[in-house]
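dude i think i finally got it to work??
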Amino acid sequence: MEQSRVKKILIRSVDVTQYNVLKVFEKELCNNLINMGIKIDTIKIGDTISPMLCNYYDLCFSINGGLLDMGDYVLKNYFNIPLYVYYVDHPLWFSGRINRLREQHCIVADDDWKGYVDRHCQLSYEADVVMPAGVEGIHSKTPFKERKYPVVFCGSYRNCLDILRGIKEQRESFAIFLNHMIEEGLKYPSLTIEDIYNRTLEYFKFPLEDDEEYTEFLSACGDVESYLRGYYRERAIKLLLEAGIPVEVYGEGWEQLDCNRKELLHCHAPLDYREMLDVFADAKIVINVMPWAKAGFHDRIACGMLNGALVVSDETRYMREEHLHEDKLILYSLQEIQEMPQKVAYYLEHLDEAAGIAQKGYQWARENHTWKNRAEQFLRIFQRYQDEDSKAAIR
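look at this
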């Protein structure tokens, strides 16, 4: 990689989150940028910020836009440097932050999310796409055939009926709107949340005045995304159990799952992100159910691969375009999710074949989906905008 002219970056440190996911992302990114010779400093809510200090840096970076919660006064009067925000969740959850500062450089983790931001958020710059990366654990990986856990799933359980009950408590007309969105998503699971939203707006002939109203109203529909993600997460685990396949689940709430063959469901406490890596390093198969992202990737997939497991995931456009299926991981369709347990059972019975795919997945992830890869990609994005701004200043 050519020498970057970006030398000093100020990072708004993420707040503590469930499983420390974003903290790990931040640390991995910072360590790799430092290894490339970049000076990194971090700030958090409550820190004293000096305008002169801010101007010392080439840019400011924030994961999921926490910096934008520091207030309009800080943003307008203290930050005279470019702000880059990496949204690793759907932008619908961050409409307030995105709409607060039009000058931000928005980076998202799914190609469809880029389309959504470019169409509706009216930022000064087009969004960029950076897929999530994975982390390879520090402990040695167990040889594939000797691994302790046949099938592992990491993630919390939230009863979909609870979500529906919450929707029912909304204003009646809004509840009807949300329920129609859910029906569309279950009928057509390949649609993005924006597609589902647009179809429902059209169905009810619901007028929205402008893009800001469009994004704010979609952000109020977050329960739909939560329901669809939860429904297929629950469906995947139930189908595996009904097929007689034991599953180790790590996360909150799984003891409450109402299902057949519950004796095959082995519930464990939630894991810190780095503890998850050790479990993946001792698992034959890691099951992934994507959040409602149809053109992206997920760090759980990369982590499973980097720790030597065979990953079984629902497909996205990115994974199909990268030709990952049955070469580096196993893909299934949400539309035909009932076929997924047959694939899992096959590879549990054909461990040599499973180990071969897992090894190819490991090599691919080492080459493409580490935080070193992401640090290099972020620097290219930073450099491109710096070059464009320099040319504009000359003109």
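The chain has a mean pLDDT of 91.
im so relieved honestly
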